[in-house]
Structure formats: structure tokens, C-alpha cells
Design goal:
single chain; 185 residues; Rossmann fold; 7 helices
Length: 185
């Protein structure tokens, strides 16, 4: 089996839950994906790092940093940054707070980020694309250059299209159809 197949199996067995759920978008769904159960596990991190780096390289996104809205994006960004450490072009990680700090420097973005940094914004699960777009806006307001958006799971509910509508390329490592047993559909 490939690393991608391993990731699909882990996400399907650990992160996919059936029932009745209200998503962050307010939509109802019979399938909830708590990707953090996978993205915060050692074996999930060991798969997401190389797959994420491969996706970034395959897209031709020459970037300096990776990050997104805390909490979902954090382990993904850290896994990819770690995987890139021994390459000719290491990628640093950052995180976007949901609100700027009210003390200290009052930063909204923490970690390895400076104005003019070329970044990839990451998301654990694309539904509407709202969280990723919030991170994109924060990065742009801080002077960063967003080269694209990478997610772990695409729910196929318009999130990628919403991001692409802003002129950014977006990719996901896995689709919800693969997690629900509808591969190839």
C-alpha cells in the first residue's frame, strides 16, 4: 500500500464518524471528519509530512513557510516543515490565531513569518473554505504572499471552489468520497 492509501485508511478508521452532525459551516452532515485525531497522531504526522511536501512540490508552489488557522492547521504545518528539514528548500511553520493577542506584541500570526514571505495556507478539512480564507486574509494583511492552499480532506462541499474563486490554487490530499468508501466516484 502507498502512503496515501495508509492515510486514507487511518482517516477512515479514526477520524470519520457517522451520525447527525452540525459542521462549523452550520450545515448538517451524516459524516463528520475529526482530522485532528489523525493529524495529531505519530503515524498520521509521519504520513502527512511527506504527502504534504510532495503535494506542494507537485504544485510548483515555491514557498518559504506553511501554516493556517489554529488549531486544525498546526499539526499539518509542523509535519510538513519537519519533513522539509533535510531538503534543499526547508519550509518554516507559522500559525494564525483566531484573534490577535491582547498583550505583548498583539500578533495575529505566530512563528516563522515575516512580510513578503511566500506561504502555503493549510487546512485540515475543507468544507466551505471559510477557515482557510480567514487565514489567507490574515497572511495577506500581514504582508505575506499566499501561493496556494492545501488541505488534508476535501468534503466536496464547495470549499476548494470558493478558494479558487479568489484566484488561489487549492488541493486536498484525500477526498471525503475515499473515506466513505466511494473511491473512484
Amino acid at each position: 500500500m502507498s502512503r496515501r492509501d495508509d492515510l486514507i485508511n487511518i482517516l477512515a478508521s479514526r477520524s470519520a464518524r457517522r451520525g447527525t452532525f452540525t459542521l462549523a459551516s452550520g450545515r448538517q452532515s451524516s459524516l463528520y471528519i475529526d482530522a485532528r485525531i489523525t493529524t495529531m497522531s505519530p503515524d498520521g504526522l509521519a504520513l502527512i509530512g511527506p504527502l504534504g511536501l510532495l503535494a506542494i512540490e507537485g504544485a510548483g508552489w515555491g514557498v518559504d513557510a506553511i501554516g493556517g488557522l489554529t488549531l486544525g492547521a498546526d499539526p499539518i504545518a509542523f509535519a510538513v516543515a519537519r519533513e522539509s528539514a533535510d531538503t534543499s528548500r526547508p519550509i518554516h511553520a507559522f500559525t494564525v490565531r483566531k484573534e490577535a493577542k491582547t498583550h505583548g506584541t498583539g500578533q495575529l500570526i505566530e512563528g516563522c513569518f515575516e512580510p513578503k514571505t511566500r506561504v502555503i495556507v493549510v487546512e485540515d478539512v475543507f468544507t466551505t473554505g471559510g477557515s482557510a480564507l480567514k487565514a489567507v486574509d490574515a497572511v495577506r494583511q500581514a504582508g505575506g504572499m499566499v501561493m496556494g492552499v492545501l488541505g488534508v480532506v476535501d468534503r466536496d462541499e464547495g470549499g476548494i471552489a470558493a478558494i479558487e474563486k479568489t484566484g488561489l490554487a487549492a488541493r486536498a490530499l484525500v477526498s471525503i468520497h475515499e473515506l466513505s468508501g466511494e473511491r473512484g466516484q
